[in-house]
Amino acid sequence: MNLTNAQLEKEYIIKDICTDDEELNAFLFSLGCYSGEKITVVSHFRKSYVISIKDGRYNIDKNLAEAILI
């Protein structure tokens, strides 16, 4: 299941980042988004998601959300 299917305000564990794009991997890693880390979807709009990782909140687009497997 990827992040687009997550329930709001429920904490999940990231299982994998599914992308071949090294820049995307590096960007997500810089946010603290990697396997084993806890992640929560705070809110969801049409094509963007507000996520909470560690103590930070970030706005990501649908393509990034689809790459994060929970």
UniProtKB/TrEMBL annotation:
Pfam annotation, one family: FeoA
Protein name in UniProt: Ferrous iron transport protein A
Coiled coil: none
Signal sequence segment: none
GO molecular function: transition metal ion binding
Boundaries of every Ferrous iron transporter FeoA-like domain copy: 1-70
Alphabetical UniProt keywords: Iron
